[in-house]
Amino acid sequence: MDKNCEKCGNWLPHIGYHFLGFCNKKVDISFRESFCEFFVEMELSGEFLWCEDCRSIISFAEFEEHKNSGHKIFRGVFVDSDYREEIYEG
Amino acid sequence: MGVSEYKTDAWVQWCPGCGNYGVLTALREAVSELKIDPKKLVLVGGIGCSSRIVYYIRGSNVHAIHGRAIPIASGIKLSNPELTVIVAAGDGDILGIGAGHFIALGRRNIDVKVLIHDNAVYGLTKGQAGPTLPSGVKLRAMNYANVHEALNPLLLAFASGYTFIARAYAYHVKKLKEILLEAIRHRGSAVVDILQPCVTYNDLMTKEWFERRIYYLKSIPSGESILDKMMERERIPLGIFFRKEMDTFKKRMEKFDVDLESVIRKKTLF
Amino acid sequence: MKVDLSIAIGGFQGGGIESAGQIAVKAFAIKGYEVFGSREYHSNIIGAHSYYHIRVGGKALRMPLDALIALDAESVFTHFRNLRSNAILVCDRSSLEKKVSEIPSMSKALRERIERTYGNISLNQILEKLELRLISLPMAELLKKLSEAVKKPMSSVSRTLNVMGVSAGLYLLGLDESTIKKAIERQFPDFEINLMAMEIAIDEVRDKERDKIPDGKKGEKLVLTGCEAVAIAKLFSNIEFLSFYPITPATDEALFIEENRGRIITVQAEDEISALGMALGASIAGLRATVTTSGPGFSLMNEMISFAVQAEIPIVITLWMRASPSTGIATRTGQQDLLHAIFSGHGDAFKVVIASGDHEEAIEDVPLSFKLAEDFQIPVVHILDKFIASSLTSIEKNKFTPLPKREFSTPPENYLRYKLTENGVSPFLPIGMATMIVSSLEHDEYGFASEDPVIREEMMLKRIRKFRKLAKRVSGNSYSVYGEKNAEITIISFGSTKNAIVEAIEISKIPAKFLQLRILSPFPDISEEIDGKVLCIESNAGQLSFLLKNCCRVDCVAKKLNARPLYVDEVLRAIEGAIEGRKEVILSGGV
């Protein structure tokens, strides 16, 4: 399926669960494989992007290199606002 | 209760001509005028010639460690608000090693008075450059001219949130006493930068040097002129630069009873 | 039938592992079992691996695992080697195809170790090699079911994946639905959606093979972390002043007190020097004051500690040790501040150091610390560690005992703050009740600074006398003895290694004895208690053994250096090593 959430410009992958992500249009979580009538092409522009294979933010300059290695790139990543409650530092 | 009520038996060790004598006299007169019970007068000193004042004024005093008089004074005042808590230490102690704590007291606005005995040198350890010594100056005991810029204590206090900021001169005992009275009466964090010569080590900023430059503000400045007056270098203004009434730290903290029962209940499983 | 389970719940940090772990601990506590849970988490990284390790029917952690609830693929790769045969493994169906190389958040070191042994293997392939009771949950489908059932958006529903995983796992382990439901209600009192999530997950596994667990001993219990236990003990001890600087793992204790503070003055200081300074000020003014910190913060407090000794100021410093030196690993455990605590503060800085072995001891040691600090006007350093701080266990309510407030007598004429007395303890009055000088310099009886040689000597002797008196007071309680009378081996240790060692010597084939040191300064005389070989176990490079060499022969030192808690099986290996004649054993258990 070519026009599913994974390929859609409104969608960001979930940082922890591979099969979930966040849709900016519906302002809700959706499944990676689902699809709907609001599909738009993904536009990878902007200073920072998210590389799912590396699980990290990359700068636009590194984009080509990651894409050529076959990595999945997105505009960003979805992090639930409650996650901070579990995170500690020193 | 006269001034003699506040004398102790300790032998005063300062060099003859030291500005600290002026501060000692003015402070004794101020607390005497305010009729503060010596038991309730808490002088907290750091380490340095000036901090020895805690031995020379009868009170319930603390001689703390270098740079750390302010946290100890803060703990005392928060614990017993009836006490009059005054920190007395040198510019090196308060604005060098203790700078972090100096700033924090301003932020908290705890009702503690900070007297900076400002002679621009580390007297007790033989005359190194202090935080308020201008750069390029070489005093008699220094190996080379000062490579640090002078800190402006009034601006630092202003930026930190002190609600009473003043500057005085140790040898003008009457005027100094007036300013100390205002500082002690003020409810909130107060700082008085007391300029004083160090007759042994500061051969630049002598009595004559000061008295050529100092003058008294006619009134408390407001608006833009506050910063202008604080930054003035050609001449040195003395007096109260800033005063404001604000909630002290204590008022900002809420008060309610510890409900041990509900704490236990929240954590209990049946 | 004795229930003894070792369970791990793993997932990515931010995925609700904390809640899942707490639900499991609470469920077993509600069922009436002794339960202990420890959270292992990574510093500050969303998505990094984190897990909860739970022991039911015991107080210490042990390997192998009887069950693993894995909320992501990385959890399986991290823990699979610790599963016993026929252990229960609950995981997400969609992660079974994942290969080791496809998990970027896994530490490179771990991935390389696995690839070296197995190649770039997938989860399915690994699990084929092991004999496990594998239950894979179709997470995506379960979420869809839940979303339809509650008619709520996916964003509320997706947060319940952790509850689904742990509910299924607990059900398979033999807990009944009503117990699991109670635990979830305690964890999330305002969110009923979690109960629906539980039902859907349990429905999915209803037809699978299930263990049986009988009811345990029911009773009113609190489920607390070490931080909460110490915080509540301090509240019961009527503290009046707390100052702190945020530092892992002490922050949780401070925040708990702050949240429930009542009239207690709580201050977040600008640094640890100020925190201890303010607390000393409060103590001088007559309040019961305390600070809480960890290794790096304690380093900063050193000068203030020396001040407290010279000026004879009562203070209790709670030191939560963590992996060091320097910033070390902020979120992992260690026992590396023992010597630091004992020798902190320059000069002859006599102080008390008390080490708690677990939550219950910590609760007793809190009022004891305040009592000693105030009776002898001396700093008391109460050492614990991150393992105790963040692990969860059930505690009886009556373990907490109140401590009466500080009291002061009427001031005499000409009060002398540092009056020379026979036992070295001067009558204490706070400032504000009499004139005096509290001084960091050597001083005379009033407090005036003095360099006189006679006065100086008298004050030194006074403080020495005072400390000797204190040593006599605590001599009956400075260590505990467990185990055989005629042991072949005596294990000596301190702190949170306690429960693993106590359990190990019960099952050890070699008769063993355990001396748990509770008070490390003044250092106890244990020479009479040694039987057979001496094995010192500690989570540092040999600090306790260094001290022990002054009073007895140490045959073997077992060192745990990998920033993980001590496991029961490791103690057995250490005992074997010592009996074999090894001088040193490095214990590397845990992931």
Describe the structure.
The complex is a heterotrimer of chains A (90), B (270) and C (591). Chain A has 90 residues and is mainly beta. In chain A, strand 2 (20-23) and strand 3 (28-31) form a beta hairpin. The model of chain A has no long low-confidence stretch (mean pLDDT 86). Chain A is globular and about 30 Å long. Chain A has one domain. Chain A is built from 1 helix and 6 strands; from the N terminus they run βββββαβ. Chain A starts with 10 loop residues before the first strand and ends in a 16-residue tail after the last strand. By secondary structure, chain B is an alpha/beta fold. Chain B has one domain: Rossmann fold (3-Layer(aba) Sandwich). Chain B is built from 11 helices and 11 strands. The longest helix of chain B is centred in the N-terminal third of the chain and has 14 residues, at 20-33. Chain B is globular, with a radius of gyration of 20 Å. Chain B starts with 19 loop residues before the first helix and ends with a strand. Chain C has 4 domains: 5-205, 3-Layer(aba) Sandwich (Pyruvate-ferredoxin Oxidoreductase, domain 3); 223-396, 3-Layer(aba) Sandwich (Rossmann fold); 408-462, no CATH class; 479-587, Rossmann fold (3-Layer(aba) Sandwich). Chain C is built from 20 helices and 22 strands. Chain C has an 8-stranded mixed beta sheet, sandwiched between helices. In chain C, helix 2 (73-79) links the parallel strand 4 (65-70) and strand 5. In chain C, helix 7 crosses helix 9 (193-205) and helix 12 runs parallel beside helix 13 (295-310). At the B-C interface, strand 2, helix 3, helix 5, helix 11 and strand 11 of B face helix 1, strand 7, helix 10, strand 9 and helix 12 of C. Chain B: This is 2-oxoacid:ferredoxin oxidoreductase subunit beta. Chain B: It comes from Geoglobus ahangari. Chain B: Residues 48-194 form the Thiamine pyrophosphate enzyme TPP-binding domain.
Q: What features would you highlight for this structure?
A:
heterotrimer; A: 90 residues; mainly beta; 3-stranded antiparallel β-sheet; 6 strands; B: 270 residues; alpha/beta; Rossmann fold
Describe how the helices and strands are arranged:
The complex is a heterotrimer of chains A (90), B (270) and C (591).
Chain A: E1 11-13, E2 20-23, E3 28-31, E4 48-51, E5 56-59, H1 63-68, E6 73-74
Antiparallel strand pairs in A: 1-2, 2-3, 4-5, 4-6
Chain B: H1 20-33, E1 41-45, H2 53-56, E2 60-63, H3 69-79, E3 84-90, H4 91-97, H5 99-108, E4 113-118, E5 121-122, E6 128-129, H6 153-160, E7 164-169, H7 173-185, E8 190-195, H8 207-213, E9 214-216, H9 224-231, E10 236-243, H10 249-252, H11 260-267, E11 268-269
Parallel strand pairs in B: 1-2, 1-3, 3-4, 4-8, 7-8, 9-10
Antiparallel strand pairs in B: 5-6, 7-10
Helix pairs in contact in B: 1-7, 4-5, 5-6
Chain C: E1 5-12, H1 17-31, E2 35-40, E3 49-56, E4 65-70, H2 73-79, E5 83-92, H3 108-118, H4 123-129, E6 132-137, H5 139-150, H6 154-157, H7 161-173, H8 177-187, H9 193-205, E7 221-225, H10 226-236, E8 241-244, H11 251-259, E9 265-268, H12 272-284, E10 289-294, H13 295-310, E11 315-321, H14 338-343, E12 352-355, H15 359-376, E13 379-385, H16 386-390, E14 392-396, E15 436-439, H17 453-474, E16 479-483, E17 489-494, H18 498-507, E18 512-517, E19 519-521, E20 533-538, H19 543-548, E21 556-560, H20 568-580, E22 584-587
Helix pairs in contact in C: 1-7, 1-8, 5-9, 7-9, 8-9, 10-11, 10-15, 12-13, 18-20
